[in-house]
Write a structure and sequence with these properties.
about 260 residues, little secondary structure, about 10% helix, elongated
């Protein structure tokens, strides 16, 4: 009975403690609110550099222009949140939920979004240079006019993503899924795409000079006007792809 009473007491005491932490955070007396419920909170313009918001509920929160540089947001729920113009330089967003989250024109240099997940995320015009998106699941997301130079997205799911006109030099997309992605005019010079799935993707006018395309799957993709000079193409699958010269690639049967 005593043990049960202690357990109940412990659970009961947890809620007030979180409530107090939430209020202190909203009052600006602390930058830490681990696991707090901040759903729909208006934090626009706040300076939260280095804040600890791991596992917090920030769904539908208004975070316009917030400074979250080097903040801890691992496991946080940011679904539906608006982080337009936010500073997320060096922020930890590992395993965060980013369903329908807006990062329009956000600065995310060096941010870690490893294993983050969410569909139709808006990264339009965001700076993701040297960011980590390894294992992230971000299908149908919008990266148009953004910067991903030096970023890593090993094994990431970017199915149907809009990646038009992006600077992605030296990006590591090894084993990534980019089926039906729009990579029109993208700069992928020196990028790593070994084992990536780009079937049915649109790479019209893409710059793939010196890219590693070893064992990548480009079947039924559009490579019209793309630059493949010096690209590594050992084992690359091109069946049905529309090649730079306008001809559809036909696999040649091996000699008997």
């Amino acid at each position: 009975m005593l043990a049960a009473a202690l357990v109940v007491s412990g659970v009961a005491g947890a809620a007030p403690a979180l409530a107090d932490a939430r209020q202190d955070f909203l009052d600006g007396t602390t930058n830490s609110c681990t696991g707090c419920n901040l759903a729909a909170a208006d934090l626009s313009g706040r300076s939260l550099a280095g804040a600890d918001l791991a596992n917090a509920n920030l769904s539908d929160a208004y975070l316009f222009g917030v400074d979250l540089s080097n903040a801890k947001l691992g496991g946080a729920d940011l679904s539906g949140a608006d982080l337009t113009l936010a500073n997320l330089t060096g922020a930890d967003l590992r395993e965060a939920v980013v369903e329908l989250t807006t990062f329009f024109r956000a600065t995310m240099t060096g941010a870690d979004l490893g294993e983050a997940k969410g569909q139709r995320v808006v990264f339009r015009r965001a700076v993701l240079s040297n960011a980590r998106l390894d294992g992230a699941k971000l299908p149908w997301s919008d990266f148009v006019d953004g910067r991903l130079g030096g970023a890593t997205a090993v094994g990431a799911d970017l199915t149907g993503a809009l990646l038009r006109d992006i600077k992605m030099q030296r990006v590591d997309l090894t084993g990534a899924v980019l089926q039906r992605a729009d990579l029109t005019g993208v700069n992928l010079q020196g990028a790593r795409l070994a084992g990536a799935d780009l079937s049915h993707a649109d790479l019209y006018g893409a710059d793939l000079v010196g890219a590693d395309l070893t064992n990548a799957n480009f079947s039924a993709s559009r490579l019209l006007a793309a630059n493949l000079r010096d690209a590594k193409m050992e084992g690359t699958i091109l069946t049905g792809a529309l090649m730079p010269d306008g001809k559809t690639y036909q696999a040649t049967a091996p000699a008997q």
